[in-house]
Amino acid sequence: MADQAEKLRELMNGGPTRERKPAGGKAARRTATRIIAVSSGKGGVGKTNIAINLALAYAQLGKRVVVMDADLGLANVNVMLGVIPRYNLYHLIRKQKTLSEIVVDTTYGIQIIAGASGFSKIANLSEEERKTFIGELAALADADLIVIDCAAGVSSNVISFIAAADDAIIVTTPEPTAITDAYGIIKIIATEIENLDIGLKLVVNRVRSVVEGRRVAERVITIAGQFLNLKVDYLGFVYEDPVVHAAVARQKPFLVMDPRSKASACIRHLVGRLENFDYRDGKGIPQFLRKLFGGDA
């Protein structure tokens, strides 16, 4: 128990200095794990597809990436990758399995943690369940990037993950209902999250032209600025591309199925834009957990 408590304190205080020794060289200081939450105001806008392919694009850059399916009701990251996990977050939190037992390696160079069902609010876990979750999640500290695929909508789970992440990406499409719902979740973020310095970004999916993507983004960003006093950055767009639908049907990421497709080029562009932001100042997993559960986590 003492060892476990010490590990938790160490984690919450930022953890020990982590170093990596390159072959034949000196140890190099490792940057904190970056955490990106991907969400949307409504379902069916391609949120999970973008989250998975972003993760793959980072993995192709040599990053160690973990995708966590944080949809606690309709988890589908594993479905889109054609993976059938035996265990998921539910087994972890209920202390039935450890993190190493539920993390699934894939043939695409990323790891996934399947979503769970059976509890409604991750913020309302019991004290013991919270400690289990925190202690186990610390094992992901060696990852360069954790992509959290949040549920669609404005549940407390979604807001908790967005508030705790280094960056939050809201996905929408040019459809009027999707635009309205994207603004809806941004409004909830503005009203319920005290610290709005969360790197909020917008991606417009399934656009037919550069102009359409920019037009949709400017509409949402302008309204958010005027009525919510909230800064939202336009990260970019993803073209409407038949390869995406074909990839979903084959349960294969479109970035792998056709790396030279328009949609794949857009994903790489999004990663390029993200890399232009200085994410090395992110506090990684310790800061994420403190934000997610509060200062006494």
Overall description:
Helix 2 crosses helix 12, helix 7 (156-164) packs antiparallel against helix 13 and helix 8 (176-192) runs parallel beside helix 9 (210-228). The chain has one domain: Rossmann fold. It is α/β, with parallel strands linked by helices. It contains 13 helices and 10 strands. The chain starts with a helix and ends with a helix. Strands 5-6-4-7-3-8-9-10 form an 8-stranded mixed beta sheet, with helices on both faces.
Summary keywords:
Rossmann fold, globular, 297 residues, alpha/beta, 13 helices, 16% strand, single chain, two-stranded antiparallel sheet, 8-stranded mixed β-sheet, disordered N terminus
Ordered list of secondary-structure elements with their pairings:
Blueprint: H1 2-12, E1 19-20, E2 28-29, E3 34-40, H2 47-60, E4 65-69, H3 77-80, H4 89-93, H5 99-102, E5 103-105, E6 111-113, H6 127-137, E7 145-149, H7 156-164, E8 167-172, H8 176-192, E9 200-207, H9 210-228, E10 233-239, H10 242-249, H11 254-257, H12 262-276, H13 284-293
Parallel strand pairs: 3-7, 3-8, 4-6, 4-7, 8-9, 9-10
Antiparallel strand pairs: 1-2, 5-6
Number of strands: 10
| Helical residue percent band | 40-55%
CATH top-level class: Alpha Beta
The CATH architecture term is: 3-Layer(aba) Sandwich
Rounded to an integer, what's the Rg over CA atoms? 19 Å
Q: What is the total domain count?
A: 1
% residues in beta strands? 15-25%
- Order of helix and strand elements from N to C terminus: HEEEHEHHHEEHEHEHEHEHHHH
Spatial order of the strands forming the largest sheet: 5-6-4-7-3-8-9-10
